[in-house]
Amino acid sequence: MQTQNEPIELHYWPTPNGWKISIMLEELGVPYAVHYVNIGAGDQFKPEFLAIAPNNRMPAIVDPEGPGGPISVFESGAILQYLGRKFGKFYPAEERARVAVEEWLFWQIGGLGPMAGQAHHFRNYAPEKIAYGIDRYTNEVNRLYGVMNKRLEENRYLGGAEYSIADMASIGWVKPYKDQGQDIEDFPNLKRWFEEVMARPAVAKGLEVGKAEREKLNLAANKDAQSVLFGQRSRG
Ligand SMILES: N[C@@H](CCC(=O)N[C@@H](CS)C(=O)NCC(=O)O)C(=O)O
């Protein structure tokens, strides 16, 4: 595997999107340095962060040993692909296997993540309980869990036979299944996958990164943090 001498800079907050990258870096076993982007305090709007992540969303990385010099990457899917290509792990080189991993990676990025995020919002954070929003996103997450459950009936992992960046992308979004109004017992293949992936030491370590900061922020009870995060409009 390609060596990494200088640590990869990880701009991170412990959430399902951030965990994807802490898990991948733990799986790879390469050196990395965590820079907390406290999204409840507005760190994502600092000019130095926006310079590498113009969408004011973490995660982002800076690899000091990028191709031809340092490189920054934002968007969790692009980061997983970059790291997978660079280190030749968890992202198969063979085209058919790669396409399958990409299908499930983009399925997570475009489907499971946004829909589960909305389910969290309407179920747990919205100041009013809006039944239509709660039902719409809870049902959609339920449908998506059914899709995963079916995929995992004949495949050990989302991308196929091998554990990959597709599994790393989804695991953090299935972890809070209760907050999405789901019962994992309804999805036996998904449950089998969930338990297997959660038992990986690197996944456990990745999920621990910044746990204390997350607890300190306590978004569910923190109105100031909620007002930073919810209702954002263009800043021009
Ligand atoms: N599509 C992005 C989504 C990242 C994302 O939504 N990050 C959230 C935390 S999970 C964030 O940084 N939020 C800051 C904000 O809303 O201002 C990715 O996959 O990297």
TrEMBL record:
Extent of the signal sequence: none
Keyword Transferase recorded: yes
Sequence ranges assigned to domain GST N-terminal in this UniProt record: 5-91
Ranges for domain GST C-terminal: 94-219
Domain of life: Bacteria
Alphabetical list of InterPro entries matching this protein: Glutathione-S-Trfase_C-like, Glutathione-S-Trfase_C_sf, Glutathione_S-Trfase, Glutathione_S-Trfase_N, GST_C, Thioredoxin-like_sf
Keyword tags: Transferase
Keyword Transferase tagged: yes
GO molecular function annotation: transferase activity
UniProt protein name: Glutathione S-transferase family protein
